[in-house]
Write a structure and sequence with these properties.
Layout lengths: L3 E4 L5 H11 L5 E5 H7 L3 H5 L5 E7 L3 H13 L4 E5 L4 H14 L2 E5 L11 H15 L3 E3 L5 H11 L4 E5 L8 H6 L4 E4 L1 H4 L4 H16 L4
Parallel strand pairs: 1-2, 1-8, 2-3, 3-4, 4-5, 5-6, 6-7, 7-8
Bound molecules: 6-hydroxyuridine-5'-phosphate.
6-hydroxyuridine-5'-phosphate binds next to strand 8 and helix 9.
Length: 218
């Protein structure tokens, strides 16, 4: 377990497969979203699943029926988990969780986002969304590595029940060790790995930083 998830936001199939293979020993999962799937097709999920479990980041945010239809497609495509937005409310989230449990897969809920704009509207409701996700029985939350103090607060609210995965490390300014110390279970890293000259070295360095933090040497 490296406590790191690769955000594979490249738009070329060969490049995606090469990076995934290259860094697979340093990541516990690969997050695949619109940039890669819209560019290469949904089949990329099955191809990448050879290297690591796949978290499909489609930020599902619709009415319950449409959410159900989307999640079904995502799991049929071979994803192990889906990321959904929480602001659409409990019924929309329940629909995703229902489908996930039929497929024995997991749902992660975005409580608030890591970019500066994420503090405008989402931060004020983030704690309510975190509570709702916990009550609804979601597997985990997506919370910002750019604001470790928010991750700490959310961890306090949800206790140990939910897994927190945290984007915003590196390119967005967050530090992996800081957000792990604040209570995140996994960090999500994209550009700092896939845009590095040597993605494997970059992944190895972040993995080492996390390991040191967990050993108490951070
Ligand atoms: P990067 O390390 O290149 O900044 O990538 C972060 C990844 O996490 C991107 O795929 C982005 O869409 C996603 N993400 C994020 O950055 N902040 C959030 O609050 C939620 C996300 O899913």
């Amino acid at each position: 377990k490296t406590r790191m998830i690769l955000a594979l936001d490249v738009s070329d199939r060969e490049e995606a497969l090469k990076i995934a293979e290259d860094v697979s020993e340093f990541v516990d999962a690969i997050k695949v979203g619109y940039p890669l799937v819209l560019a290469t097709g949904l089949e990329i999920i099955r191809e990448l699943a050879e290297f690591a479990p796949i978290i499909a980041d489609f930020k599902v945010a619709d009415i319950p029926n449409t959410n159900r239809l989307i999640c079904k497609q995502v799991f049929e495509a071979g994803a192990d988990a889906v990321i959904v937005q929480g602001f659409t409310g409990r019924d929309s989230l329940d629909a995703c969780i229902e489908v996930a449990s039929e497929y024995r897969r997991d749902v992660f809920v975005v409580s608030e986002m890591s970019h500066p704009g994420g503090a405008e509207f989402l931060q004020p409701v983030g704690e309510a969304i975190a509570r709702m996700a916990s009550e609804a029985g979601a597997f985990g939350l997506v919370a910002p590595a750019t604001r470790p103090e928010r991750v700490k607060k959310i961890r306090k609210i949800i206790g140990d029940k939910l897994t927190i995965i945290s984007p915003g490390v590196g390119a967005q300014g967050g530090r992996a060790s800081d957000v792990i110390a604040a209570g995140a279970d996994w960090v999500i890293v994209g550009r700092s790995i896939y845009k590095a000259e040597l993605p494997k070295e970059a992944a190895s360095e972040i993995a080492a930083e996390i390991e040191a933090e967990l050993r108490g040497e951070g």
